[in-house]
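tool=predict chain=A
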Amino acid sequence: MSRSGALFIALLLVLGASVAEAADDIVIADFEGPNYGDWKVEGAAFGTGPAHGTLPGQMDVSGFLGKGLANSFVGGDGPVGTLTSPSFRIERKLICFLIGGGGYPEQTCINLRVDGKVLRSATGPNRAPGGSERLAGQTWDVSELKGKMAAIEIVDRNSGGWGHINVDHIIQADAPLVAEGTMDISVSLPYLSLPVKTGAPMRRMRLMQGEKIFREFDVELSETPDFYMAADVSDVLGQTIRVWVDTLERGSKVLSKIQPIATLPGTKEAYGEAYRPQFHFSPLRGWNNDPNGLVFYQGEYHLYFQHNPYGRNWGNMHWAHAVSPDLIHWRQLPIAIYPHAYGDWVFSGSAVVDANNTAGFQTGTTPPLVAAYTSTGRGEAIVYSNDGGRSFTEYEGNPAVKHQGRDPRLLWYAPGQHWVMAVYDEIEKGRYVAFYTSPDLKQWTFQSRIEGYFECPELFELPVDGKEKHSKWILYAADGAYAIGAFDGKTFTPDGPKQRYNYGDCFYASQTFSAMPDGDKRRVQIAWGQTGQADMPFNQMMNFPVELTLRKTGDGPHLFANPVQEIEKLHREGHTWKRLHLKPGINPLSEVHGELIHIRLRFSPGDAEEVGLNIRGTKVSYDVRANALTCNGKTASLRPEHGDITVELLADRLSLEIFANDGLVYMPMQAHPDPADQNMELYSKNGDAKIKLLEVFDLDSIWTTGGSASVER
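tool=predict ok
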């Protein structure tokens, strides 16, 4: 096929592909003036004139036209009031407007009044935390009211959360401001390009074969995109599909930018972006949060994760997939689990190897990989893979567990020869981890629950000081606060209150690997690294893998976290100092510069009041008198061990991970250094310290030493 022919097919538009221009609109209000003009203002909610966008204390307001809009967030959600237009004659078939804010009928709304009666009404789209302030188009059909006198009333009678309303561009028209759009495409290449602009109107998109929807998601389409995302359509190669979008503005040509493409957008420049983490995993494009299904299977470490493949903000939850031979170098693979349906998202879960084929899912000679995840529309779902974890098949009996909760963690309990599901559970506003058991990963029986845990539970056994005969069970949830105790396969009994080992601001929803190649003698954890940079086409990352151990201290057993030893694979040039006398004003690192850094430091505080490091503008300080380690406002108690403090640092482009006293304190931190700043400092204040060992290593990028910037098919 010629290039022009392929382009013609790729851009083939059918009726409805763009919304026709409408002539002779009558503007009722565009709110572009310095005040409300002839509109009647009552109460304080709307102020004395239109707002110019976002008001103090309000989330970012978008989707309005021009500079002004009616915004009742003046003074916050508390004030109430109304705006009422002068009377006007209805002369067109439609009244169109843009609206956002609270979704409370009769309380946060826009009304059409005719003869004093409300004949049409619309509310904002939101009434819950986490909503968006984006205005969206709505239309009233008023054709039967033509010739009648009417007035528009914008109402805010709610003083609670989302107790405000945003309205703009109220017009009379014969064609809507927004309407559905469709386009037919012959799929000759494996992806469709999606022009995305963060903050653009969120639209619902469907990819359809006839009447069958095979993909449906929300996406911020724009004719002037920040970057391109992609929809994988490799399953329908050679077929014609229909692209449907729920709302397009008049004259929009955004559909013409959706084209079949051979490779994922951005692969040429990917992983070299200014703020791309260089030895922490992050997806090629889009959002990531929780790690899911961490497992060693068929010679690979598998990292599944929560992912929005269509934008850089949270949403459209899928299970994305990456694999590694060594916990260091990662290769992103195609999406592993797609949502069952729009709104039935693939939330967090776990994966295990069913070595004895207890579920009967095995089809070949290799034991299957079995995963459990929260299907938000159904409950806890079981899926299985017989192709190396690349794709999954639904268990026909899903949901396997139905309750009020999410995030199932699977494990094999050897003494009882049964499976365990530890899952977050909500009952009467209480937060619990519930424990279910099963002989076959399909039929589950509730056993017990323990209160005080929120989201993403993790449960595993560790030897104390490496002694297998003296082991304890660890239970924690998303924040990482852990309890040490006993588990009999059905009930967890804590030895005492929760403890902490994580003190940073860049840690959530961690999980450890199942089926490790050494028989689970090594417990390796990855957490969601909550850090990003606004102008990047990806958002968030995974923290560096850490090895967890349980060791005795003067306060009893504690978890210790240390970067996995494989970090040394990335070591390049190194600098080592021993037996330094550190004085105020002296910086042993003044001639050492770097971007990707691994530092090991052991020091005795001596008579210094403070000893610290400044790594590319991020300061890590030890207060000798307070026995406290601090970074960017986060503090952990830390006392010398045998007179010494140890600090280990991993510095990447968006983070600084700190390990103190051999991992007793773990402090993963967000960091946003200037890319040009590669300076480092080791200092003491008001006294001298003794540096017993200082090692500084430059690190290679994992994307240039065995990783891949592309998604494998």
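The CA atoms of residues 189 and 262 lie 5 Å apart. Residues 3-10 form the longest helix (8 residues).
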